[in-house]
Specification:
The complex is a heterodimer of chains A (about 100) and B (about 180). Chain A is about 75% helix and about 0% strand. Chain B is elongated and about 60 Å long. The termini of chain B are far apart. By secondary structure, chain B is an all-alpha fold. Chains A and B meet through helix 5 and helix 6 of A and helix 1, helix 2, helix 3, helix 6 and helix 7 of B.
Chain lengths: ~100, ~180
């Protein structure tokens, strides 16, 4: 009987490619896929692969969640005082010219 | 508006100053503190205003401004920055944190346990060559081509720095989450 972990390993390596690309290629291009940096054909291939691949889909979900989280957390607005200073300095520039 | 309202200033306000948040964000990541960041934004805006006749309307104003900021930072705030800091190669970047959390938290819910400052600090702790691409892409939503233009790097380099920067950030947050008990 094949051990379960061996089966898992076999599936990871030898699973027939879905969407015309294999898991390795999808993983390599995952960020480009999420960032919208790939051409239409590649996007479609990866989308089809992800739909069917139980191995890649959770990884895609995780990386997407991570990037959304960074975007939400890291944004800082310019302080109002800085805006005021900048408008004042532009007026000053104008008056000097 | 002041009494001497110039058309050029109006145009500059409409086209360039709408990107003030972006400039402040990038400045903050470059300088590491709000006071220097404010100075850098102010210097950048003044330079951009003086050079406004060189800006081609309809081109990417945000990228133009961030390029001016980058050059200002290099020239004024950190004169030795032309020498790129040593990039350490470590294998940890190749592995997504997913591999460590897939059994306990595959959806990455632990990310939501962090408070603002912890995330900002983790970004700040990234080496600059990774930090700036990550901020431009993930915080400001810029394309690889825009980032490549601003940082004067090939698109392939931007891609690999983003990959490695994100993985480092992920790893750092994961380690911190373990320390703080956000994840077990």
């Amino acid at each position: 009987m094949t051990a379960f972990w061996k089966l898992g390993n076999w599936m990871g390596k030898a699973m027939p490619p879905s969407g015309g690309v294999d898991c390795c290629t999808v993983m390599q291009q995952l960020y480009e896929y999420i960032d919208g940096e790939l051409d239409e054909q590649t996007v479609e291939q990866i989308r089809q692969h992800l739909e069917k691949c139980k191995r890649c889909m959770p990884r895609y979900d995780f990386e997407s969640a991570f990037l959304r989280f960074v975007e939400d957390q890291a944004h800082v607005s310019a302080p109002p005082e800085l805006r005021r200073k900048i408008f004042a300095s532009l007026l000053e520039e104008d008056s000097e010219n | 508006m002041g009494q001497n309202d110039s058309p050029m200033r109006k145009e500059f306000e409409n086209e360039a100053l709408v990107h003030l948040d972006t400039l402040f964000n990038v400045a903050l990541r470059l300088c590491g503190n709000a006071s220097d960041a404010e100075d850098l934004v102010q210097d950048t805006v003044t330079k951009a205003y003086r050079a406004w006749d060189k800006y081609e309307p309809g081109t990417n104003c945000r990228a133009w401004l961030v390029t001016i900021m980058r050059n200002t930072f290099i020239n004024q705030f950190r004169r030795d920055s032309r020498r790129p800091s040593a990039v350490q190669f470590d294998t940890v970047e190749d592995v997504s944190v997913f591999e460590s959390v897939q059994d306990k938290d595959p959806e990455g819910n632990f990310f939501h346990e962090f408070v603002d400052d912890e995330v900002k600090q983790a970004i700040q702790d990234l080496p600059e060559e990774f930090r700036i691409p990550v901020v431009l892409s993930d915080v400001e939503g810029m394309s690889y081509a825009e980032i490549a233009e601003i940082l004067d790097l090939p698109v392939g380099t931007v891609k690999s720095r983003l990959f490695r920067g994100r993985r480092r950030l992920q790893q750092r947050l994961y380690e911190y989450a373990l320390e703080m008990g956000y994840i077990r």
